């Protein structure tokens, strides 16, 4: 038995080769209840390991929700570094998805060196950003974490106290220890340069910035026809089969501003039903890479040409990867995390833009004990029984079972569940 659960996606072929998708989940959505009665420290130490996929996003959502419930305002630079850690995880997740799904289309075998770089990407960034400290623990300390662009002061260590030693009421959370324990900004810039080189070598054949500038059909076509890297080869493979608009169907995107407004729906009598099959304004929504990048000129061009079909979804993933070096370089950048106090005392809510979409945590804390915890993951939005995946799969022609299976697998991978799935074809 898989402790993470799985999705079972059944495609039923009709008499006229049309399809109907039935999506069912065995994901243990009540799992956060195991933290009820446990300490906040136990929650923050355990949860990122319990949720193996997107553990950094889970950890950041958890600590942010708990900080709000405890009325602790994190240091701004701590928040920025946590956000960068999530972006690094997003880069790793996107790259693995591309290697797994696109590579076999053109019989691409990556060099071991590139695979090693991808494997080390997130851990290398974490060491630069946080040294030996845990980014998912709440601390109170006088030290302010310096900006990555600041020279690091040399002064003695001043260890922070755990949350059990905080004064009541408002506080400020930061990382303990000497600022001098954190590596210099040159290491961070070197990591960004290495990411740019990796993306150019593996995907674009040029710098990510240069690729993003090809946001008109003529320049994009030139790259598509002349490129020799994995990305152009996979997109040409899709084009040669006429599958560019595969899965193109009406979809409603989940607005970023809706994230914190979901808090009242995550507790009370109807919370379990909402978490299992969420809707916003009575409509299933899509969250994830397309929703985050739909207004970018490159993705807007793709939408005008291929709707929200397979080609557009592949380009959206490439676009986010190409944007990531810039997001990692900026001191500000678009927030990947939003957090606020809940509607009841001792509650906090946080949303994080994880690789696969909007991840929401709600914490209820009494003293130092967790009294309630809820998680709403992007898979429940995207794989809603009447959601984006069901709509996309319903556009497929079921005449040839082998082709249907490949098409369905590509669409499911493009939208990307955070657990495994079984694809069953009937009829």
Strand residue content: 5-15%
Q: How many helices?
A: 15
Average pLDDT, all residues: 88
Number of strands: 9
> Which oligomeric form is depicted?
single chain
In CATH terms, the superfamily is Cytochrome-c3 Hydrogenase, chain B
CATH class call: Mainly Alpha
The CATH topology turns out to be: Cytochrome-c3 Hydrogenase, chain B
Query: What kind of sheet is the major sheet?
Result: 4 strands, antiparallel
SSE arrangement, N to C: EEHHEHHEHHHHHHHHEEEEHHHE
Mind telling me the C-alpha Rg? 22 Å
- Summing up helix and strand content along with how strands pair, one would put the structural category as alpha/beta
What's the domain count? 1
- Low-pLDDT regions: 151-170, 172-183
**Main sheet strand line-up:** 5-6-7-8
Question: Which percent bin holds the helix content?
Answer: 40-55%
Shape verdict: globular
CATH architecture designation: Orthogonal Bundle
Could you explain how this protein is built, in words?
43% of the residues lie in helices and 13% in strands. Strands 5-6-7-8 form a four-stranded antiparallel sheet. Strands 2-1-9 form a three-stranded mixed sheet. The longest helix is centred in the first third of the chain and has 26 residues, at 76-101. It has helices spanning 40-50, 55-69, 76-101, 112-130, 185-204, 208-212, 217-226, 230-240, 271-276, 289-293, 297-306, 310-329, 378-382, 388-393, 401-415; strands at residues 7-13, 19-25, 72-74, 171-173, 337-341, 347-354, 357-366, 369-376, 421-426. It has one domain (7-426): Cytochrome-c3 Hydrogenase, chain B (Orthogonal Bundle). The chain is of the alpha/beta class. It is built from 15 helices and nine strands. A hairpin with a 5-residue loop joins β1 (7-13) and β2.
